[in-house]
Amino acid sequence: MSTKKDKFSLKDKNYMRLALNLARARNGLTGENPSVGCVIVKNDKIISIGQTGYNGRPHAEYNAIKNSLEKINGSKMYVTLEPCNHYGKTPPCTKIIIQSGINEIYYSIDDIDKKVKGKSFKILSNKNIKVTKGLLKEEAKIFYKPYKINRINKLPYVIGKIAISKNKVIYSEGNNKITDRVSDKLTHYLRFKNDALLISSKTLNIDDPQLNCRLKGFEKFSPIRVILDKNLKIDLKSNIFKSAKKNNTIIFHNSSNTLKTKILKKRHINLIKMKHSKYNQFDLKTVLKKLYKLGVRNLLVEGGDDLTKNFIKSRLINQFYLFKSTKILSKSKKHVIFTSLNILNKIYSKKLKFNSKLGKDTITIYKR
User: Fold this and answer.
1) What sign results for the dihedral spanned by CA atoms 226, 232, 238, 242?
2) Once rounded to an integer, what is the mean pLDDT over residues 332-340?
């Protein structure tokens, strides 16, 4: 029985795999634009690399071309996503590619953006540049799934996260730590990789969290803090209030408390007034749509039991991190049990992605 011959060489795959790794390294840090990786090769030697800039600009192709210390003409370009071909806040990448003298380009998949999709192939080919697409396309499709969700659904890609003790407790008065330091580092990595972090006012007032990234050297990548606080119960002595500054805190509410509204606005907190659903709760999908319009593309939800349950039941979580500790926490004081484990396993039972030890803890990652 004959098998279809792979048209891509091992070298081509390795160059594109490097480009994908460059894109992964910048993933979650490129604002409204997708993270793209680019590698330029001449005479079987890598002469330059590029990634999408922080907050989305400049684009990877531009960076790779400008970063090169050698002449680009006659080279090959490997890029993870179809180059843009329209004027926006920057000139089209197809234009700079044509001007650079690159004579061959490989890209993995077409861009899902209707302004771009499938047009670059024709533009570049008409300028006598050899264009080949589909290199490592299956890997690229997996990587760009969050971007696809952003563009098609006009919603952020949502990651849920919760830590539970061996006896399923997520909060026990007097016990501040559930997981060990390895799990804590992963939590801060998730904060580093997401545009925004969402909690409820209940979690805010019980835990008084900082909601920042505390990985050394990456503090400036702390996410925007988003609080669901329908009655504006936020404690004015909380870490969130004291550290609020322009563009770093959003509160969804439905309060007529003009005095507290004035105080919060003075701290540059973005207050979004929104009606409740029939269950006296915010409609979570509407919250996500509003966050998308504000530029949030990746959202981490670190809620308590109720908020997590509502997100899971609404099937709005795309990926979920469950940290399980070996500790047994006291139920004799004030405590909260994680009641959503059965719902989580039921809804995501066929989508189990990963299960492993993490330091002293166990981590299970579910994915839709």
Assistant:
1) positive
2) 85
Give this prediction's pTM: 0.93
Question: Which three-class secondary structure state does DSSP give residue 301?
Answer: strand
Q: In what order do the strands lie in the sheet with 298-301?
A: 270-273, 249-253, 224-228, 196-200, 298-301, 157-164, 319-324, 361-367, 352-358
Distance, CA of 46 to chain centre: 29
Reply yes or no on whether 61 is catalytic. Answer: yes
Q: How confident is the model at residue 5, as a pLDDT?
A: 61
Please state, in angstroms and rounded to a whole number, the distance separating the CA atoms of residues 84 and 119: 9
The whole-angstrom separation of Cα 191 and Cα 203 is 17
Q: Residue 59 carries which side chain, given as an amino acid letter?
A: H
Task: Render 2-68 in DSSP notation, one character per residue.
Answer: --PPPSS-HHHHHHHHHHHHHHHHHTT-STTSPP-EEEEEETTEEEEEEEPPGGG-S-HHHHHHHH-
Residue whose token pair is 């993270």: 35
CA angle 110, 115, 118 (to 5 degrees): 30
Query: Could you give phi then psi for residue 341, rounded to 5 degrees?
Result: -60, -45
Check pLDDT > 60 for residue 2: no
- pLDDT for 11 equals 97
From 61, 82, 139, 173, the catalytic residue: 61
Q: Whole-angstrom Cα distance, residue 110 to residue 164?
A: 41
Distance, CA of 244 to CA of 258 (rounded, Å)? 19
Which position has the token pair 């988003």? 226
pLDDT computed for residue 355 by the predictor: 86
Write b or e for each residue in 253-286: b if 16 or more Cβ atoms lie within 10 A of its Cβ, otherwise e.
bebeeeebbeebeeeebbbeeeeeeeeeebebee
pLDDT of residue 1: 42
pLDDT in tens, 122-165: 999 999 999 999 999 999 999 999 999 999 999 999 999 999 99
8 Å CB contact between 310 and 285? no
